[in-house]
Amino acid sequence: MTHIITSLCLRDGACVDVCPVECIVAGKPEADWPWFFIDPNTCIDCGACVPECPFEAIFPEAEVPASFEMKPKQELQLFRGDRWVAEGGELVDLTDDSQWNHEFYKEGVGPGYAAKNM
Fold first, then answer.
1. Mean pLDDT over residues 16-39, rounded?
2. Across the chain, which distance is largest between two alpha carbons, in Å?
3. Is the entire prediction scored with pTM above 0.70?
């Protein structure tokens, strides 16, 4: 199992600094890959990144919520879409975000670790 960074990610980067296996990469180009992404094949599921995220955007893959309640003024960066600011109380499905995490590292689809050199 791995952890997933969801569309609640606003690219703070604290997660990268604490990852002991350096498997978190900032998506580039940012317009195409707007979040940070965790390599599911390298992640050791230690969870060190979870408390470091100021946006509470990281979940164990099996626990990514299908009905996440947004807080007032909490932001959501839609994949290849607009940034959205919640009024509070809206329910959003974050489960589709798992797909993009896996796609980022899939050969021929996403940039994976090559994004570090972009």
1. 95
2. 39
3. yes
What domains lie within the chain, and their CATH numbers? 3-111 (3.30.70.20)
Q: Which of 30, 5, 3 is nearest to 115 (CA)?
A: 30
Q: Which residues contact 108 (CB under 8 A, 6 or more apart)?
A: none
Would you state the torsion angle of the CA atoms of residues 84, 85, 86, 91, taken in this order, to the nearest 10 degrees? 20
Note whether 80 and 97 are within 8 A (CB). no
Give the C-alpha distances (Å, rounded to integers) separating 7 from 20, 21, 105, 108, 117. 23, 23, 17, 23, 23
Peptide bond into 51 cis (omega under 30): no
1 has a pLDDT exceeding 80: no
